Amino acid sequence: MIKKEMLYEGKAKKVFKTDDEGKYIIEYKDDATAFNGVKKGTILGKGIINNKMSSLLFKLLEEKGIPTHFLEFLNDREMIVKNVKIIPLEVIMRNVAAGSLAKRLGLEEGTPLKTPVLEFCYKNDDLGDPMINDYHIKAIELAADNEIQKIKEYAFKTNDILVEFFKDRNIRLVDFKLEFGLHDGEVILADEISPDTCRLWDLKTNKKLDKDRFRRDLGEVEEAYEEVLKRLQ
Ligand code: C5P
């Protein structure tokens, strides 16, 4: 397969066309941003860890019946994926109160939630990714009703699978963000699943093993990413 021109460069990834129309190559970078790009930095080796972890988790989810964009691990920083048209939604799943939910609802970080919570945000940097609901999604035509139902079904199922998977590796899956896309008219899971997009706490000590170490200047950022991958492999 031949890597062709870059289609898109995001904060943490680049997407390239290939000589095969149905396939893209995603390249994972070490660049890190937070607070809608206000905080910038580098997490050395992050691109390699996020590529390996996403590959491993997409493979697991495919085996459990969730359709994903993942096709093949190419090398340390690159994976081959199906071409998708990303639906501009951040789909957030939460099991424990943390981050913006803890703030918004006045809950102490670490408070378990009685049931998993799904939130939608409109993926739009200029607007700061505002939270929206199904009605907004339909009203501004971000996705159709049947697509929203599929997204919800896959998001809850992904949560069930990942909570168990991480628990077996002594990690609490506090919350995470998913993105979906359309491929041949079907909704499939896309983007990445990594310590950049999940809150992962050590099951016993609650030590943060994710991007909050970078966002909140907690130190040992690289070590945390490495620790997660070590426990997953
Ligand atoms: O900040 P907040 O508490 O809303 O984040 C919830 C989850 O979604 C966290 O795991 C965070 O890493 C993830 N997230 C993300 N990309 C964003 C916003 C949130 O990966 N743009």
From TrEMBL:
| Molecular-function annotations in GO | ATP binding; phosphoribosylaminoimidazolesuccinocarboxamide synthase activity
According to UniProt, the reaction catalysed is: 5-amino-1-(5-phospho-D-ribosyl)imidazole-4-carboxylate + L-aspartate + ATP = (2S)-2-[5-amino-1-(5-phospho-beta-D-ribosyl)imidazole-4-carboxamido]succinate + ADP + phosphate + 2 H(+)
- The EC number(s) attached to this protein equal 6.3.2.6
The answer to keyword Hydrolase applying to this record is no
Segments forming domain SAICAR synthetase/ADE2 N-terminal: 7-231
Q: Which GO terms describe its biological process?
A: 'de novo' IMP biosynthetic process; cobalamin biosynthetic process
Pathway per the UniProt entry? Purine metabolism; IMP biosynthesis via de novo pathway; 5-amino-1-(5-phospho-D-ribosyl)imidazole-4-carboxamide from 5-amino-1-(5-phospho-D-ribosyl)imidazole-4-carboxylate: step 1/2
Q: Which UniProt keywords apply?
A: ATP-binding, Ligase, Nucleotide-binding, Purine biosynthesis
Q: Which domain of life is it from?
A: Bacteria
EC class: ligase
Q: Per its UniProt record, what PROSITE patterns does this chain match?
A: SAICAR_SYNTHETASE_2
Q: What InterPro entries does the record tag this protein with?
A: SAICAR_synt/ADE2_N, SAICAR_synt_PurC, SAICAR_synth, SAICAR_synthetase, SAICAR_synthetase_CS
Assigned protein family = Belongs to the SAICAR synthetase family.
| Stated name of the protein | Phosphoribosylaminoimidazole-succinocarboxamide synthase
Identify the species of origin: Maledivibacter halophilus
